[in-house]
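Support request, please re-run this one:
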Amino acid sequence: MAGDAAHVHSPAGGQGMNTGIQDALSLAGKLAAVLRDGAPESILDTYGTERRPVAEDVVAFTHRMTKIATVGSGPLRSLRNTALRALDWVPAVHHAMAMNLSELATAES
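Re-run finished. Output below.
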């Protein structure tokens, strides 16, 4: 229902744990609001609306990472490796990747 086991995507980037923790926190907060604070049960219906876009982004991102990592053609592997080495020198790329992998990119916007 929530957590790492609720996700079926590539482990590329190790995002399952981050997504699972965020899912569990979201659901726990909503359940506490209903059970402890008397919030209307309809608040539970917002869980899917809130978390689905995150899951879709993670699936799309890990799919792209997997495709890049498993490129079969020798020339494409060479191009990929050259591009990654070049991008490694760009601090903005490091920041963007860190924010994306930690799933904090949306929190920053």
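The longest helix spans residues 46-69. Helices lie at 15-35, 46-69, 74-87, 91-101, 105-108.
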